[in-house]
Amino acid sequence: MAVPQTNNLKRAGNFFIEDAKIVTSQGIILSILPQILHIEINENIQLNSVTGNLFLSDTIDIASVGPILGQEYLSLRIHTAGVNNTSLAIDFTQELFHITSLSVRAPTGQPNTQALLLEFTTHELVKNQRVKLNKSFTGTCSDIVETILRNELKTKKDLFIEPSDGIKKYVFPNFDPFTAINMIKREAVTIFDGAPTFMFYEDLRGYHFRSLSSMYEKDVSQKYNPSVVGSKGGVRPEDSFNDMRSILGMQITGNGDTLLGSFTGAYASKLTVYDTYARRFKEYTYNYLDSFKTEQHISSRNKVTNASGEDDFPLISETPVENTSRISDFPAKTFLRSTANKIGGDELGESDPGISIQHTNDGRYTFNSTRPETWLQRRQSQIVQLENGISAKIEVHGNVMVQCGSIIQFNLPLASWVEIKGNEDRIDKFFRGRFLVKGIRHDFSVETSRHEMVLDIVKDSLPSSLSKLDKAINTQPEEAGTVQREFGSRIDASQS
């Protein structure tokens, strides 16, 4: 079905395809625009590459004539109607997608027609399997990542790299680039505020190596209004732009999991660091509730510059769980890591992290040691919150202004009509305000000319504090139950 080549927005979610071609391994260029039924594209801040699939109605035996082997390339350019900024188009006409497989090939019931489902991804993921690193790298984590992407993976895409602190030296024995970068990101801390939450991912604009803190500082890209669920779209262009804010459907996927949070160390953990040079151990304890106000969260915007932003509060209550001890006072997760310092904090004072034993050929100590106490526990806590925080999947009209890593505003009205004191606006305590877009599934339906998105959104803080008690609630009887040792003919020999 041909797509109208017009940039006029008639309904929310309208799009048009400018280019759609398959380049086969034999160099044959096949225009597939008339055969396209549906396109799906996925981006996520926890994935290294953009992926997707293409659903075709094949009337010319593309699978056989091409042929389609999983070694083809896809040229694709899609515009959101009404957006005149060409830089916001989904443009993979220069950096082509790599078709990896023909996962479905089946008859449709119509004469001389078969259905094809092609899986594709960006070419860096494919090339990553062919490149092995067998060398050392020196520099900041951000500099090393840039070097790997440009010089080893040879990507020419735009890079969005946040500066990191500390000079490091890494040696990678036969590692692929993505494995190396994912190792580096765990130890990277920002030069700006020391946040240890670097993510490495690809979106439709390029590759990102940046912290959650930098994402939290963004302005809101879009506001969504669940009070207009299932909007069919307005007739006038201004109605269509307003409809961009409507929610077509939603599913709450997470409202916190305290058992998982305790088990994974999100609320409390203990770290033992062994200094192999000084031959000594040192312990560090992480407490989520005590550390909360010193960390960057989605509503606080920026604690270093005091930029405008709402106050934020922890996802768990400070009500004690045993006597007067809170859930974050019990470090259920234990870590053991090694490091090497020439001089440690005991000699220079606790405020000094120590000088690394690693040095250059002329004897100068220039490299930072791993220093797990600066990143491991806090990163573990914030990444678990990212995966298991207050989260939902919302289906909205598609547009290219919202990307993974964007900040949106989402307010969910209360389900009941019961009057709640202190909540006169009738918005859910958990699902209100700023949310991080963790992932996006783009769905382009050619038949309806509609682009819809499923946004995977999450937040790691609350806009208001939770009530607390001074003492733990008693959940057990005062006396212990009895112990039974006799079971029919099975009698304890010591009592016979």
How would you describe this protein?
It is a single chain. Residues 1-6, 228-238, 302-308 and 347-351 have low confidence and may be disordered. This protein has a 6-stranded mixed barrel. It has a 3-stranded mixed β-sheet with strand order 9-12-11. The protein has a 3-stranded mixed β-sheet with strand order 16-15-17. By secondary structure, it is of the alpha+beta class. It is built from 10 helices and 23 strands. The radius of gyration is 27 Å and the shape is globular. Among the domains are: 133-213, Phage tail protein beta-alpha-beta fold (3-Layer(bab) Sandwich); 259-383, no CATH class.
The main pleated sheet reads as: 6 strands, mixed, barrel
Radius of gyration: 27 Å
Which residues form runs of ≥5 with pLDDT under 50? 1-6, 228-238, 302-308, 347-351
Number of strands: 23
Order the strands across the largest sheet as they lie in space: 13-14-20-23-22-21
Give the N-terminus to C-terminus distance in angstroms: 87 Å
Structure annotation, total helices = 10
In which range does the helix fraction lie? Answer: 10-25%
Please tell me the overall pLDDT: 85
Shape: globular
How does the helix and strand content classify structurally? alpha+beta
